[in-house]
Write the structure tokens for this entry.
Amino acid sequence: MLRAFKRAGIKAEIPPDITAALWAKFLFVASWGGIGTITRAPIGVIRSFPPTRRMLERSMQEIYEVARALQNNLDENTVSDSMGFVDTLPPNGTTSMQSDIAENRPSELDSWSGAVVRLGRKAGVSVPINKFIYNSLLPLELKARGELQFPDKS
């Protein structure tokens, strides 16, 4: 399969530990998606404003701790490497979860932040930033899914 991608001119690699690679990706997307949606800010603002940068890094650290508690071999530099990658992103970047919730559409909230909360509980790891994200956005998610009604503004 790797040869097929390379023949097609597509840069591809097979990570030595696919589970660790998936957790590293999850750590990145769930944290950025959650912090981006809560703040309604693009990544350039999040990474350059010290309070939101700390929230993003703390969210990643919580997920890292959950992964390690669940016996996943994430490299000890996963969070710092992810934050380094954040610093290379176009400043106006946002996530699909930000767009979906802003447009009152169902999103990945349960699969991202909700999963962190559930897995943290299972692993016995406290995830206060991710729990805050999930609980804060859940009413909007349920509204988008037609499971919760908001009163009219009038």
